[in-house]
Specification:
This protein is mainly alpha-helical. It is built from six helices and two strands; from the N terminus they run ββαααααα.
């Protein structure tokens, strides 16, 4: 498949200039970060879609769950597209491993609160059975999203600390 290589493509223009196009990073989709972000996007979508399909406006606690799930769903999609299109290479001054660590840690903590709130607010004696089923499913999926953000936090921490890389090749020394 053309265009899925890791190197950016260039478009020819006037002599001496070239415009760099964003290239899709196929290896990112197979990396643990890419897989986890994809799973987080799908499960996060399920959480807020299931709650939005209920009468959540009658229960104030679901407002928090909706805020957390929609906010992190959008933020995860933006980060996913940033890495997929290799836009993080354009912003080299941004410490991306630290940004991902902070993002995933905050998402984990806020999803813990959203999961607990959603789980506590599910009442089996709800007057609408389909609301109960959707809210229970949203609670289950918010637990799964919370776990995936926790795993992402672990991998982000390892990437930030440089664990898993070869110490001999990760240090640049100049003996001249």
């Amino acid at each position: 498949m053309a265009g899925l290589s890791g190197a950016p493509r260039t478009r020819g223009g006037p002599p001496g200039t070239s415009a760099t196009l964003a290239a899709l990073d196929g290896s990112f989709l197979c990396s643990p970060l890419g897989v986890l972000m994809g799973v987080q996007a799908v499960l996060g979508l399920l959480v807020w879609a299931l709650i939005a399909a209920t009468t959540y406006h009658l229960h104030a606690e679901y407002g928090w769950v909706m805020f957390v799930s929609i906010f992190f769903w959008i933020a995860t999609l933006l980060l996913f597209m940033t890495y997929l299109l290799q836009l993080q290479l354009k912003f080299y001054a941004v410490p991306w491993p630290l940004v991902l660590l902070i993002f995933n840690a905050v998402a984990t903590v806020l999803y813990i609160t959203a999961f607990v709130t959603c789980a506590v607010a599910v009442h089996p004696t709800s007057w609408r059975q389909w609301d109960y089923n959707r809210r229970a499913a949203a609670s289950f999926f918010s637990c799964l999203v919370m776990i995936t953000y926790g795993v992402s936090t672990f991998f982000s921490f390892r990437a930030w600390k440089g664990l898993g890389s070869n110490a001999a090749t990760s240090q640049v020394t100049d003996h001249a």
